Amino acid sequence: MKINRWTFYTIFAILTLSFLASLNTYAATDNKEAEKIQQAISVFNEITDLWHDQKFDEIYDKFADREKSTISKSKFIRRMTNEKKRLSCCWQKVQDVKVKLYSSGKAVVSAKFGFEDQSDEAFYVNAEIPLYLKDEGWKVKVKDMLTVSPDLPKRQKTRR
Fold first, then answer.
1. Please, what's the b/e burial string for 127-157 (b: 16 or more CB within 10 A of its CB; e: otherwise)?
2. Angle between the 5-52 and 56-63 helix axes, to the nearest 10 degrees?
3. Which residues contact 47 (CB under 8 A, 6 or more apart)?
4. How far apart are CA 111 and CA 93, in angstroms?
């Protein structure tokens, strides 16, 4: 079977255009993923800034996934306030931030959190905080926030 030149070029052009269209769709998907990752990082940074400033009521109001939360706002604030540690300042607050995006509208932010106790000694905890994409934006489960904040090691009492 012999194909004339015109038919060959037509088939070649159709295949080339189809390939280019699929690349464009892939690039658009990549852009959407990059945008979601950037949004998740932005929300994460806002949460950690509020956390450092101890504005737990704002964290709860803006970012708590209240649909699945069994912890009330007042209990969350009380538990976060009663902790004898706080998120460190500046570059020590959060390091090595990485985001893994899932197709189900979930992003897991892993980072090294810097905490300081009442003596201002810094110590670090590696943790992950899942964020969930809801209609109104990225949300975090309250219990996940509470689990990131570690218990301080008990100090040994010195004898006098």
1. eebbbbbeeeebbbbbeebeebbeeeeeeee
2. 150
3. 59, 63, 129, 140, 145
4. 10
Is the sign of the CA dihedral 65, 61, 92, 115 positive or negative? negative
12, exposed or middle or buried, with CB in 10 Å at 0-12, 13-18, 19+? exposed
Three-class secondary structure of residue 56 per DSSP: helix
Q: For residue range 116-154, what is the model confidence (pLDDT) as tens digits?
A: 877 777 788 899 999 998 877 899 988 888 888 766 554
HSE of 33, CA atoms in CB hemisphere, 13 A:
12
Question: Do residues 107 and 100 touch, judged by C-beta distance below 8 A?
Answer: yes
* pTM (2 d.p.): 0.71
Q: Which two tokens stand for residue 22?
A: 């699929």
Cβ contacts of residue 101 below 8 Å, gap of 6+? Answer: 33, 36, 37, 40, 107
Dihedral sign, Cα of residue 105, residue 110, residue 111, residue 113:
positive
